[in-house]
Amino acid sequence: MLNQLKESADRPQGQNSASSTDQQRHPLYIIEPQLFYPVLLITLLLILWITTFSLISANHQRAQESTISSATALLHTYEAQVVRALREIDQALNVTRRTYEINNGNTTLSMLNDWGLLLPNFLFVTSITDADGNIINSTRAFEKHNVSDQDYFRQQLKFDQLASGQPWQDPYSRTWKLTFSRKINTPEGAFAGIVFTSVEASYFVSGYEESKLGELGALGILGTDGIFRVRRTGEKVVSGEKVNFSDLVPNNEEFEEPESLEVRLQHNSWDKVKRYTAVSQLYDFPLAVVLGLSEQEQMQKVSQLKRVYLLRASVASVAITLIVIVLLRLSLQLKHSRNSALEEHIAHAKKIEHLAFHDSLTGLPNRSFFSQLLSQGIAESKRYERCFALLFLDLDRFKIINDTLGHDAGDELLKEVARRLTEALRETDTVARLGGDEFVVLLPEMNDEKQLSAVAKKILSTVGRPFHLAGQDLRVTVSIGISVFPTDGEDEQTLVKNADIAMYHAKEGGKNNFCFYSDELSADSLERLALESSLRVALDRNEFVLHYQEKHDLRSGEITGAEALLRWQHPTLGLIQPKQFLPLAEDTGLIIPIGRWVIEAACKQANRWLEEGLAPRCISVNLTERQFTDAHLLDDIASILHTTAINPTQLELEITESVLLSNFDRALETLSKIKKMGVRIAIDNFGTSYTSLSTLDKFHFDTLKIDGSVIRDIANEPSDKQLTEAIISVGRTMAMTIVAEGVETREQADFLLASSCDQVQGFYYNKPTPPS
Amino acid sequence: MLCFFVASARSDIVVVVSAASPISSLSKNQVEKIFLGKSRRFPNGSRAVPLNQSEGNLERDAFYQMVSGKSPAQIKAHWAKLIFTGRGQPPKEAASNDDVKQLLTNNGVNISYIDRTAVDDSVKIVALK
């Protein structure tokens, strides 16, 4: 749950709104290019092809209309020409027969020819027969002597009008001919023969013009009997073909309006060519004129145009497609670059956000982000009635490490601690750094003490593993305070404060520890807070006093010196022992000014004793770890020596073994500098820890102080006796002054005297007292 | 051999006008137009009335071959079309070279062709350019 909150907090809130305003600013973004351009392409192509096809269709329509009207016009012309040619023929035949009827001589034809009343000789052959069909006169040497069997002859026996027979083929020229005849009457009106003229059938289709009819057009005269008198297509002239007349002229019976000519597109039965075909039946003759325009030829231009249009449209389609593809690619690139710019922007914003909400050193959430997470967590937990735990972590001795190894090492340590914490905890847990060496951990849905203890122990052991920093291995411990929502607080401040209180308790309880918050702790803590605030002003108010415990020479029994012991004369609480306020002073750093005051006051006291005429006494002052590692320690000592003008050998500084061991090299350096000033150094509480003899040898202590616990049971414990004897022996070997602390009985004093101990201090001799 | 004969026969044909005619030279094309009914006037603007020789006369075929390069059938088809479409009437015809000479003098026709051998004072040869 908290993790989700964390994620949502990680995501910049402005992203969505930023992109939506971006869309409003750039209308093209409303439609994705991947969609827009294909739609554009399809639209353009549709427009292009619809236009193309409608153009083609319109052209076709126009061409068809023009072909139909052209066919109509041509047929009308042709009809007129045929009718006129037939009338000319009829007229010439009439002139001939009338002349013959009057003249009745063989010179008729030559006479008419001379007069120019005959049909042109070289096209027409005109002949005259007698009543039996014998040719008696002709414009050309006649091939047939008798034509009485011919249809054009026999027809004249039945009626008196222009007759035309079936086409016949000239046996010599192989050309098809048509013959037209007229009856000759005797003055009495009896049949006297015929006058007839033959002409090549092609004459009637000589008006065929390829420029108008094309190579595949059709022009011809069709008898109502369905026999083509003549038909021409291109240069090809045909006669005598039989076709179905009613197929060509379907409305034969109702054909009354000559103007209402019907042009039909049909496959002509005679040569299977598809033509716009028009047929018109002649009024005077049992003939019809036929005209056909080949669809293929007439539509050729349109077809070519159609091909051109299709080609153009295809080329245009390809071009449009290419352009659109290029545009699409460009716009995708543009979009991509916009997006990457946006992404960069977002990444930058994220980074800034991250910086604002995370600790730059460890990358963990910082105090403000943690505060946000915590308040969100509280809100969520309240809503869903859940619990969670807050762990407040503080590294022990971090200040000392920072001061002795430098800030870089301190930073490295913090990073490593952050890494270890993150590793040790669940994904859903949150680790934050509040600053300095303070960390907090949020454990969602946890309030069980057992579980929380396990987590705390895990953290202790993880952090407790040795660190390798600045070329050396060192151990760091952590103190953990735990508060649980909602029992230990229902708001952010209370939870944090209570976890903090619990952490201080853990620290006071010996560090490297964890502690659950409870109301009792809070009471303690209040006391502590009061103590801390009064400690801060204690120095200014001169509330500190020094008590002195004298050191005695065992042999002479003389007072050789004294150990200065700090006491706090609290205005309301009375005299407070060091163990009650020193840890607090150490934690808060107040130990530094207090310690300085102690040394100075002790030195002044030594001078005072001298002034009182007493023998010079050596004053011992304890240095805490914090003091010993303080960078100004040496300067402070030097300045105190200077201002008090005390003989440096009258000052002895005591440090414990543990101080030495935390940073061996530095301790060695500091101690040797102190020694150089002439100040004595003593190792305190010897025998309680495991200092090796070689260590002892390196530091050249002036004084070795045997811890009171070592000699406490000397009377009963032989091993303690031996240990004491061994320490004294070693100390003597190293030319150190041996001082036994905590001497409380005569037996102890006797034993120490027997063991060649130099000096003693303890209740047996005197309790610490204020200077007299 | 036949080709040679035709060629020589053709080269013997001359275009003639009556001796009194002012026409002295014409182009082949002008002559062709006059004899195919495409032109009714001489270059000087006076009316041209051609006289043909009868169908089947060697002179006729040779003449058309000479001025237009067309066969008798093509000439026939040409006139058939003109007549049929009502755009012309064929020239008058003379049966022989002598008839031509005779008709040229006083029968309304004023240009024709004959064999060179038949040329005499009554007619004038038109130079073909």
Structure characterization notes:
The complex is a heterodimer of chains A (772) and B (129). Chain A contains 25 helices and 28 strands. With 772 residues, chain A is α+β, with helices and mostly antiparallel strands. Chain A folds into four domains: 2-30 and 303-357; 208-297, Beta-Lactamase, CATH 3.30.450; 367-517, 2-Layer Sandwich (Alpha-Beta Plaits); 536-760, TIM Barrel, CATH 3.20.20.450. An eight-stranded mixed beta barrel of chain A has the order 20-21-23-24-25-26-27-28. In chain A, helix 3 packs antiparallel against helix 9. The two termini of chain A are 68 Å apart. Residues 1-25 of chain A have low confidence and may be disordered. In chain B, helix 1 (2-11) crosses helix 3. Chain B is built from five helices and seven strands. The longest helix of chain B has 13 residues, at 72-84. Chain B has one domain: 3-Layer(aba) Sandwich (D-Maltodextrin-Binding Protein, domain 2). A three-stranded antiparallel sheet of chain B has the order 5-1-6. Chain B has a two-stranded parallel ribbon with strand order 2-7. Helices cover 40% and strands 18% of the residues of chain B. With 129 residues, chain B is an alpha/beta fold. The A-B interface holds A 81, 84-85, 116, 120-123, 200, 202-204, 206-207 and B 54-55, 76-77, 79-81, 83-86, 89-90, 92-93.
